[in-house]
TrEMBL record:
InterPro entries: RNaseH-like_sf (IPR012337), ZnF_BED_domain_contain (IPR052035). This is Zinc finger BED domain-containing 1-like protein. SUPFAM superfamilies: Hermes dimerisation domain (SSF140996), Ribonuclease H-like (SSF53098). It comes from Pogonophryne albipinna. PANTHER family: ZINC FINGER BED DOMAIN-CONTAINING PROTEIN 1-LIKE, ZINC FINGER BED DOMAIN-CONTAINING PROTEIN 4.
Length: 297
């Protein structure tokens, strides 16, 4: 799908002229005020006629927000037609800016069914997420409710990993969790505004992050800076056997020189969280950046 204003773009107009010079391309206004309304009305009539023949139906609904944070409520019905064909039809995705309380959602769902002449007594079940507002809405309407298995599984996993032992084993630190929220935030937070290069150890530890955001031309300079920083790190404070500064990482420079693209470091650090070297790496975030720092070869 493309936006309606595509018909006004010079490139699209030239393409149509090449395909058929005789064809007169309708205006944007024609598509928005004539073609699309006609298509909607004809489709709605066809779907409404099909729903008239349905004895019973089930439905699913969900509340969601667009990229511009506009709120919508979708309604989809599921039924078996007279030809014993299972059908699922999305009836509407309506703008829903009101507060998402149980009472307002309940009334919104009632209005949606009424607009399609769907009797409530023919509703077998409505599937929703596990939100308390959705559950209350269907309870207020006295409609049978089936909570989505996917949402329940997600909640079970989310609650399961809150166990302290599991969280310690697989859960990232708070700063790591913030790092993964958005790609934009990830890049902007760990980008040097002066030199426009990454300063964070995650680019060394995580190969996916590194290959996505580090220019190949910057790998060698970054490697040298990383090695110098690692060599300057002290042993971790919680280590039962204190190490001399740098002894935990003396093997790193040779390994980095032998293997391209920091492969050794990314695998070693990501798979060995109990290693003193990994602890030192975590303590080094972000890298201490000095404009005039001399990096040993």
């Amino acid at each position: 799908m493309v936006p309606i204003y595509t018909v006004e773009k010079p490139g699209f107009i030239n393409m149509i002229k090449v395909l058929d010079p005789r064809y007169v391309l309708p205006s944007r206004k024609f598509f928005s005020e004539v073609t699309l309304p006609q298509l909607y009305n004809s489709t709605r009539q066809r779907v409404a006629k099909e729903l008239e023949e349905v004895s019973f139906y089930s439905a699913t609904t969900d509340l969601w927000s667009s990229r511009t944070m506009q709120l919508y409520m979708s309604l989809t019905v599921h039924f078996i037609n007279n030809y014993w064909i299972r059908r699922s039809v999305c009836l509407q995705t309506a703008y829903f800016p009101e507060d998402h309380t149980g009472e307002i959602i309940a009334q919104g769902l009632k209005d949606a069914l009424n607009s399609w002449n769907l009797a409530e007594d023919r509703l077998i079940c409505m599937t929703t997420d596990s939100g308390s507002n959705m559950i209350k809405a269907l309870k207020d309407n006295a409609w049978p409710n089936l909570q989505c298995f996917g949402h329940r599984l997600h909640n079970a996993i989310e609650n399961g990993v809150k166990d302290p032992w599991i969280d310690r084993a697989i859960g990232p630190e708070e700063e790591d969790a913030e790092l993964t929220k958005t790609i934009k935030g990830k890049v902007m937070r760990y980008l040097d505004p002066v030199k426009d290069e990454l300063l964070d150890m995650s680019s060394l530890v995580d190969p996916r992050f590194r290959t996505t955001y580090i220019d190949p031309d910057k790998v060698e300079p970054f490697k040298k800076r990383a090695v110098a920083e690692i060599m300057s790190l002290p042993a971790p404070a919680n280590n039962s056997t204190p190490l001399q500064p740098g002894t935990a990482v003396q093997c790193v420079p040779d390994q980095l020189e032998q293997q391209d693209d920091l492969q050794y470091a990314s695998v070693h650090f990501s798979n060995n969280r109990a290693d003193p070297l990994y602890s030192n790496m975590r303590a080094a975030r972000p890298l201490r950046h000095t404009e005039q720092q001399e990096v040993p070869e």
